Amino acid sequence: MTTLHELLESAPKNWGRWGSTDEVGSLNFLTATEVLRGVQAVRQGKVFTLGLTMGGPKGEPVWPGRTGPVRLNTQDKASYMAERLSPLPGGLEYADDYITMFLQGSTQIDALGHTWYDDQLWNGYDARETIDGLSKASVLPIAERGIVGRAILLDIARYKGVGALDRGYEITLDDILNCAKAQNTEIIAHDIVLLRTGWFSVFFEQGPQKFYEDFVEPGMTYREELIDWFHKMEIPALGTDTIANERTTHPQTGIALPLHAALMRNLGIAFNEILWLEDVARDSASDGQWTFLYVGAPIKVAKATGAPINPVVVK
User: Among 64, 78, 169, 212, which residue has the fewest nearby CB atoms (within 10 Å)?
Assistant: First the structure.
């Protein structure tokens, strides 16, 4: 069986580009100049949030083997009615709750050390740095830095004339470039790239059983010209409305999630997964504005492999 080492032997790397201690990778491309370029993309003042609702009535799509968040009340009005609690001095009462979840069980950002091969993480860190929490390339440096810049939404599903891409559909570089052309929008170096597949409509409209049946998500996969394009364009972050930001397996080799290796581990591109893009895509199709300011930061969790985020985009 082909290994990631063999598949990616000649693929580009950004290791050492920002020094031997770097933990945020291609987010370094989002300089103050790029932040201001993102601000200049704001033309209407429309605001959209891209996070899925946690704990909603239909649940949420998560990677097989994970479960969605569970929210529970610790106290509420019933606690006072049953006289288990007394009001605070002056009469104030309050409800409280907590949540248990996989840190990657919602709209989230991957740490650059989340996946690896050949016992090396992003920037060449030893994979043993992940034992008992990520001592290197965790999500915390990304959370402390934040992600701000110009984003471009490429509505691949709409470009293909479908509500949602088929299970296992491969998004090619030609799809990306031709979709941008059809939207009369130019992809510029250092853009945050967001791809809409419509895939989550299967989960919310047809249910989890249909969604997870013969589970292979649509999306990009490893192709030499695709990786070279991401490298040349110096893309800092990639987001999609899928769980993994890529086709689940590489069709020719069966390798699982090769872009986690080629883009995230090797190039340091931040992955923003499980996005809700339906509202902003519908609005962009209506007004023709496919670029906007993207602002987001995962929550600050030390040593974490990823963390929830609710990105805000402003058109």
Answer: 64
DSSP 170-206: BPPHHHHHHHHHHTT----TTPEEEEE--THHIIIII
Strand segments (E) across 214-315: 237-240, 270-273, 291-296, 306-308, 312-314
What are the tokens at 96? 């409280």
Q: Is 81 exposed, middle or buried (0-12, 13-18, 19+ CB in 10 A)?
A: exposed
Half-sphere exposure in the Cβ direction for 59 (13 Å, CA): 15
At 46-90, the pLDDT tens digits run 999 999 999 888 889 999 999 999 999 999 999 999 999 999 999
pLDDT at 151: 98
Closest CA to 171 of 149, 189, 193, 190: 193
Q: How far is CA 303 from the centre of its chain?
A: 18
Task: Domains for the chain: give ranges and CATH numbers.
Answer: 4-62+103-314 (3.50.30.50), 70-100 (no CATH)
Q: Report residue 293: phi and psi, to 5°.
A: -80, 130
Q: What are phi and psi of 181, to 5 degrees?
A: -65, -45
d(CA 34, CA 236): 11
Residues constituting the chain: 315
